[in-house]
Amino acid sequence: MAGRLIAMEARLYAAAGAHDGRTWRRWRIAERREETRDVVSLVLRPLDDGPLPPALPGQYVSVRVRMPDGVHQLRQYTLTGHGADGTRRITVKRVRGAHDGEVSNLLHATAAVGTELTLSAPFGDVTLADLDTPLVLASAGIGCTPIVAMLQHLASNGSPRRVLLLHADSSRDGHALRQEMETLTDALPGAERVFWYEQDGHEDGQGRTGRMDLADVAIPEGATAYLCGPLPFMRHARAQLVAGGVAARDVHYEVFGSDLWLARS
Ligand SMILES: Cc1cc2nc3c(=O)[nH]c(=O)nc-3n(C[C@H](O)[C@H](O)[C@H](O)COP(=O)(O)OP(=O)(O)OC[C@H]3O[C@@H](n4cnc5c(N)ncnc54)[C@H](O)[C@@H]3O)c2cc1C
Q: Which one of 29, 141, 163, 166 is at 20 to 30 Å from 199 when CA atoms are compared?
């Protein structure tokens, strides 16, 4: 059994392009872009010219950083973009509060063009399946990151799929990657979008006011849904999608932390 499990693990690493000791690679920040007050995107270029491990839309990398006390910390960040030149992008929200998040704040404070970071190969099984079913992509806050990767994949393939993009945020200014979400849905012939802003939505195409409410949103029949955001948001969106006719088995979700959702619902 041990032999079988070791072989299975080796196959998983190989499938992720992380075999032959290539799980961890060094990357250099080629560009830093302030998306909002609390969100920054980092475009990364590999330091070596070995083949890049493949990445599926929705996958994340682990970023390994050395903290000021010398301890190494790992955090996961979804890949929000790929350049034809081999660059990759992550988008990091600074976690603020009574206890500021360690790694996100360190990255915000220190990640500059030229800074080197250690990244794992891409992993994650909440990825967009290439089917022709209609899609509902629903996110809140920084949960937009896997959704943007999925939209990029659809747009780069010229997908004719019906796509309903739903996003909720505190404010229009705080909505990271908003312009990209708009450009990508504009480029997709079957896509429409609805945004909700708690503070400053307007019923003029700029976003609705308040929290996401799907009661009067037409959910496409036979849709597959992908959700990402805080747990209360995902519970609510999932319940409304299921009430709107989406099969529970077709609702996929990514949790940016330990997965306590099913245990609690
Ligand atoms: C699959 C996956 C993909 C992800 N993708 C993204 C992404 O694309 N973008 C993104 O920004 N994030 C993403 N995340 C989240 C990211 O990995 C980190 O969890 C996030 O950046 C916070 O890390 P941190 O080190 O800043 O916070 P941490 O230091 O780990 O703190 C986490 C939380 O604990 C609280 N806390 C810390 N210390 C204490 C204490 N002593 N007492 C009480 N509370 C405390 C903090 O306030 C914070 O709310 C993803 C996570 C996963 C699992």
A: 163
